[in-house]
Design brief:
The complex is a heterodimer of chains A (252) and B (283). Chain A contains 9 helices and 13 strands. Chain A is of the alpha/beta class and 252 residues long. In chain A, a hairpin with a 2-residue loop joins β10 and β11. The radius of gyration of chain A is 18 Å and the shape is globular. In chain A, 53% of the residues are buried. The model of chain A has no long low-confidence stretch (mean pLDDT 96). Chain B is α/β, with parallel strands linked by helices. In chain B, the strands form 2 sheets. In chain B, strands 1, 2, 3, 4, 8, 9, 10 and 11 form an 8-stranded mixed beta sheet that branches. A 3-stranded antiparallel beta sheet of chain B has the order 5-7-6. Chain B folds into 2 domains: 216 residues, Glutaconate Coenzyme A-transferase; 37 residues, no CATH class. Chain B is built from 11 helices and 11 strands. Classes of the chains: A alpha/beta (252), B alpha/beta (283). At the A-B interface, α3, β8, α4, α5 and α6 of A face β3, α4, β4 and α5 of B.
Chain lengths: 252, 283
């Protein structure tokens, strides 16, 4: 079977949750939702997941529940903050900008915050997520506009800013990975500089570096992002995302 | 026994320019829109809005009645960002006080409990501390000595919420998926007003709610009750009605120019609420 780039991304997202056990997997966005469901439907069966609203559900389908949801528990927004602040959650957020230390921005673009060039989402829950929970990011359009030398506003906290803020900020900090349409990146380097972890099939390290606005740590040997197994592909295509929304987010 | 029923106009008459007003609901869900429309028709100005923001913030930004927005997001859910709020921000027309959506809950809780702040890790290392002048840090008095963020009490002059059912004295319940933080908005406010889809006798509330666990608002938290079927339109108010996506799209598109907004305003805001509801029904 031919595997699409979107399906490689789904698999890379699923891999973010490997080893997480019985915590809330909270992937935000189309491909993250599919990837989270894939992790639970295959190698991380104990993950908790929401219906995007006020319930934890056990269904494998990512976006619609034709058979009706199977509700495990009631989880309104208030209970969500209990999960966030107790650290029993791994969130995958988007990023309009992100720098080498993992500082993320999705609040506003421009140097004057009082009158931004572009108002974006606001701070949402990023400050709390990034210092309390395992946090990864999903960037469907890897480009120098997203991967920047310095973000305009720090919404999600990166390693350097957390260190400067002191031990209360770093105590539970757990920045994990960035999955993009080109590659997987992490901070597993001595100075927490962003590193190229794996390349999606057909992508070169130079391509990733050219699409990044700062210098990445690039090991001599870079692994290839793994392909989904036949069983995983079947789950993605038939059960989790039968209408192929993934292909709209990362077109072939 | 006091009957607390009021009209939207009577509620607005109890508000003043310059007030800090908290608004319940979440994004484009169960917002007290008939009260927002009544404010939009009034002469109130220089308002500070405290909200898990949706079109409540967007409408009043579009009418130019907002001085300051205290928020973590202003989203229409199916439209990620309210375009009227976006326009106001990019024009520098409103003051922006950013919060994290969880920290925001602590600010409301602090006000409800009458303490000056509640501590949290949330905000450490982020630009919240740079951009929100009300936030500060506080050192733990215990052996750990951790330096944490102090979420200041979000004290409200008034709160406006929309609940599915209520009695005439202000006991009320939600029927949808989430109460959101409506109870905290009411607890944090000096004057408390709810609108409701339907006023029922007190003895009928439990049957409407299905379980006492949905009877989350008691009359001690409410000063005024507005009965307004469709009062949350066009936001989501399940199970009574879903979000009116077509209407929301038209609302969003009205941010494209001053003329588009003037047209939307003439058609949907500068009318009585009865006319509004009749025109929505005829759409």
């Amino acid at each position: 079977m031919t595997v699409s780039r979107a399906e490689v991304c789904v698999t890379a997202i699923a891999e973010c949750f490997r080893g997480d056990g019985e915590i809330l997997a909270n992937p935000i966005g189309t491909i993250p939702m599919i990837g989270g469901r894939l992790a639970r439907a295959s190698f991380e069966p104990d993950l908790l997941m929401t219906d995007g609203e006020a319930c934890l559900i056990s269904d494998h389908a990512a976006f619609a529940w034709p058979e009706g949801r199977v509700i495990e528990a009631y989880n309104p927004y208030r209970a969500m903050f209990d999960l966030v602040w107790s650290g029993r959650r791994h969130v995958i957020m988007g990023a309009s900008q992100i720098d080498r230390f993992g500082n993320q921005n999705f609040a506003a673009i421009g140097s004057d915050y009082s009158r931004p060039k572009a108002q974006l989402l606001g701070f949402r829950g990023a400050p709390g997520n990034s210092v309390n929970d395992a946090t990864s990011y999903w960037v469907p359009n890897h480009s120098p506009r997203v991967f920047v030398e310095s973000v305009d506003v720090v919404t999600g906290v990166g390693w350097d800013r957390a260190a400067a803020a002191g031990p209360a900020a770093t105590r539970y900090m757990d920045l994990r990975r960035v999955v993009t349409n080109l590659a997987v990146l992490d901070w597993e380097t001595p100075g927490h500089h962003m590193r190229l972890r794996s390349l999606h099939p057909g992508v070169s390290a130079k391509e990733v570096q050219d699409a990044t606005g700062f210098e990445l740590v690039i090991p001599d040997q870079v692994a290839a992002s793994r392909l989904p197994t036949d069983e995983e592909l079947d789950l993605i295509r038939r059960v989790i995302d039968p209408t192929a929304l993934r292909e709209r987010e990362v077109p072939a | 026994m006091s009957d607390k029923r009021l009209t939207e106009e009577e509620v607005v008459a109890e508000l003043h320019s310059g007030m800090t007003i908290g608004i319940g609901g979440w994004g484009s869900r169960r917002k007290p829109m008939s009260l927002i429309r009544a404010i939009a028709r009034s002469g109130l100005r220089d308002l500070t809005l405290v909200s898990y923001g949706g079109p409540d913030v967007g409408v009043l930004c579009a009418t130019g009645q907002v001085k300051r927005v205290v928020y973590a997001f202003v989203s229409l859910d199916t439209i990620a960002l309210d375009p009227h709020f976006r326009s106001a921000r990019q024009a520098g027309a409103v003051e922006d006080e950013p919060w994290d959506e969880g920290l925001f809950l602590l600010g409301l809780q602090a006000a409800a409990w009458r303490v000056p702040f509640l501590p949290s890790r949330v905000g450490l290392g982020s630009d919240l501390l740079r951009l929100n002048p009300r936030l500060a840090t506080v050192r733990s008095p215990f052996g750990d000595g951790e330096e944490l963020v102090a979420a200041p009490a979000l004290e409200l002059d008034a709160a406006l919420c929309h609940l599915d059912r209520a009695d005439s004295r202000g006991n009320a319940c939600f029927l949808g998926p989430d109460l959101y933080f409506d109870d905290l908005f009411l607890r944090a406010a000096g004057r408390r007003y709810i609108s409701t889809e339907k006023v029922v006798p007190t003895a009928g509330l439990l049957e409407e709610a299905g379980t006492e666990q949905r009877l989350r608002i008691h009359r001690g938290l409410v000063d005024g009750v507005v009965e307004r079927p469709g009062g949350a339109h066009f936001t989501d108010c399940r199970p009574d009605y879903e979000r009116d996506e077509a209407f929301q799209k038209d609302y969003g598109a009205a941010a494209s120019s001053a003329e588009a907004w003037a047209g939307f305003r003439a058609e949907w805001i500068d009318r009585t609420e009865d006319e509004y509801q009749a025109r929505v029904a005829a759409r």
